[in-house]
Amino acid sequence: MTPIISVGYSSERQGKPRPNTAAVKPSNTSKAETYFTLCGITCYCELCFLKAAAIMLTALSINNYRSILDLKVPLGPLNVITGENGTGKSNLYKALRLLAETAQGGVVPAIAKEGGLDSTFWAGPETLSRAMKQGEQAVEYTVRQRTKRMKLGFATEQFSYAISLGLPVPSSQTMFGQDPEIKRECIWNGQVYRPSSSLIDRKGAMIKARSGRQWQVISQHIASYHSLFDQMADPVATPEAFQLRETIRGWRFYDHFRTDRDAPARQAQLATRTPVLHHDGRDLAAALQTIIEIGDKETLFKAIDYAFPGASIRIIHHADSRFSLEFSQQGLLRPLTGAELSDGTLRFLLWVAALLTPRPPSLMVLNEPETSLHPDLLPALARLILHATKHSQLWVVSHSPRLIAALEQHPDCNAIKLEKEMGQTVIPGQDILTTPSWHWPDE
Ligand SMILES: Nc1ncnc2c1ncn2[C@@H]1O[C@H](COP(=O)(O)OP(=O)(O)OP(=O)(O)O)[C@@H](O)[C@H]1O
Ligand SMILES: [Mg+2]
């Protein structure tokens, strides 16, 4: 039996499997013969597929989305995104979130929440000529050469994915004429798209999957607002779709922790095991207790002591099955409750809970984690982030020179400084050697 995909992982970095590229086999054999050898055994089990899902992103590609006319971002284990206000850091972050929504079945509502596809399209001309960039020619409307599409895609070391969205043909039959349509989706083998490496191809309402040398029609009627991930969840029939969907669903975003007076993190919360901190931090006490019981409690206590010398935390179990947090500090006669903590202290504890999660995701995205932290706490935060890179790929958007400098000490740090050129987000100095190879399937 010849496998179409056989992935071997080194166990040296526990929790962050790395594909043994030598083991990736060509794709032109039968789907029924697919197997994964992740733990040294040949196996069809879901666990092995889920382990396979923990694969690192190697590139992100965005076209025609807000300030991003066309950007190909190389990614490494630790990615630090910086740039002045308005250069497009949040646009990049939002693009990644839209990709995450695709696997959750929510890309169309997510675009609607952003104001609709028309407002998310790049607002400039289709191309910016050299003369426009040099100010020799005015930026003006030109006749479009290509149909207007917003495209998002990413490459991993094994499979890659791209989605292309556009507006529907105007019709008086529906009031949903502004709903974006998924025009094309494609999953391919390896990092660079070639027709021969394509494994699953969705064009309009039709999805086809490669089966040996043939293409098999999987669906002819997929709705324009459904992604192929909504339709293809069979780990044996279409392992690549299953694996990518699980990869994307595993991404974790921390954008804004609430630390106001009424923030849920300050109050007693349900006492249930919480290996993943909620994105607004509402289950902080339970998440910390979960780390203490099944996670890396030594690092947790060290991180708190490093940030606040002599301080420690304790989780109190109340009679009504709720947990609350107590914070003991040098010089005080009694511990402080969650409600009494400063914004910065609470926020730091939230980062401790998020970054020391006992269930690390394949990708963790942190948007401006330095917010409301005193600069003296930033080395402690940087240590936590660097610790998290042992188990997860990290994407950190930051404005803080001190945090950036500390993260750049990491040998695998990929610092991406964004700039704006004629309204578009660019990575200055990117050339043919530093730009990841990328081809959109619909070009
Ligand atoms: N449809 C669009 N077309 C072109 N540019 C757009 C579009 N929508 C938003 N922008 C531009 O994107 C920029 C905002 O980008 P973004 O919010 O990502 O910046 P940022 O780097 O996160 O800034 P900050 O540091 O202030 O948060 C604005 O300058 C705005 O002009
Ligand atoms: Mg921003």
Automatic annotation (TrEMBL):
Name listed for the protein in its UniProt record: ATPase
InterPro entries given in the database record: ATPase_AAA_core, P-loop_NTPase, RecF-like
Domain ATPase AAA-type core: residue ranges: 78-404
Pfam families xrefs: AAA_21
Organism this protein belongs to: Photobacterium gaetbulicola Gung47
Gene Ontology BP term (one): double-strand break repair
One annotated GO molecular function: ATP binding
